Amino acid sequence: MNYTAIYFSPTGTSEKSVVSITRELAEKAERRDFRRVDLTTYPAKETKVKFFENDFVVFGTPVYGGRIPKVAAQRLGNISGKQTPCIVTVTYGNRDYDDALLELADLVKSNGFVVQAAAALVGQHTFGEIQVGRPNASDEKEDQQFAKNFLKALKKIPCKGNAKLPIKGNRPYVEGGNGGTFHPHTDDTCTKCGLCVKNCPVGAIASDCRTINSELCISCFRCIRYCPSQSKNMDDANYIKFAKEFSQKLSVRRENEYFLPQK
Ligand SMILES: Cc1cc2nc3c(=O)[nH]c(=O)nc-3n(C[C@H](O)[C@H](O)[C@H](O)COP(=O)(O)O)c2cc1C
Ligand code: SF4
Ligand code: SF4
Q: Which of 4, 44, 80, 156 is the most buried (most CB within 10 A)?
């Protein structure tokens, strides 16, 4: 079996969990390494990969408005399987994942994958100060334990087709998957290093490193998180007020949920 982690992850939380799970599976199978397919950056819109029966893929995306981001769904459309077993995961910012996990499972199934397990995981929210630092070391342990439990479950219930998984959600899915309305500002400390231009998932930052196309920007805040000189920010009164209230509203911690094959 060859193991691959595939993710769209602007601020790195989905990536972290997908990698923990994939690494654990590969180690248990005594594989020295696993492959990563990062669908986050703009050039990844052209990435096309085919998988086969001897592959195993772990997918991960964030939740945007209760759905998987539309841009991630488009890029995942270029990833096909041939009865390829997989695990699907979504990472959400402590509000809810609504129909996102169901949507991701449906999407990869329609592209030739067989879904054997799933997880809805909590990560630090893009906006405000919500579950800061998650997934943390204890979430990572839970992810690793999930991978171990999955392998144990497979021994008891060897599943060839899609596993019976109690994933919540409804079809048609809730309206969502769009970006937000917050677009970062750039202050005078910008060194024009170009990192934000290169890393923006949707190519929304012009070559002056400052002008953001608000039609394209999905408010993922990747440019804020990755700027080495903290020159990109959301220092405006509207956002600061929203972030404070939103952080209070979502202050009660939610737990990761893992779905294993059932009889
Ligand atoms: C536009 C947008 C919409 C979001 N919608 C939700 C949501 O519906 N529910 C939720 O719990 N978190 C929501 N989040 C938070 C992200 O799902 C969360 O921060 C996730 O960990 C980000 O993943 P990443 O680090 O892989 O980019 C949203 C974030 C953004 C930017
Ligand atoms: S990453 Fe930061 S410093 Fe570099 S160009 Fe972008 S805003 Fe400027
Ligand atoms: S410009 Fe918008 S879409 Fe691009 S990285 Fe920044 S927040 Fe994300």
A: 4
